[in-house]
Amino acid sequence: MLNPLYNDTDGPSLAFLADLLAQPFCRAWCLLREHHPVAVVWYQCHSDCAEVIDLRVRENERRAGVATRLLRASFDALDGVDKVNLEVRAGNTAARALYERMGFQTVGHRADYYATNQGREDALLMSMLLPVTR
Length: 134
Description:
22% of the residues lie in helices and 43% in strands. By secondary structure, it is an alpha+beta fold. The protein has a six-stranded mixed beta sheet, covered by helices on one side.
């Protein structure tokens, strides 16, 4: 069902993410339009903290607020979670802008974390506290 959103060469494979759902600490939400997936987000949850493992938006749906709507809805559904963490490629300016608009702040980085065709790329670590009333 999610195959149009997933290219196994771009981030975690669909098989890896599907296997996570068998774990009691993993959560995922999918945004559908006319019964077709347009975006999906995967989390690992640990006590009062959640980590975004992957966020995908169908290419023709990007920059239309889809990711924002999905993230906000998933934040509301993350019962007992006060903080959300993620990592993002330093060069992924569109994702970084989205996360900053959502309230994430850069709290660290991992040098040369991601392999690229040109060598290595840093990962930025971002975090945000969720509002008390959601």
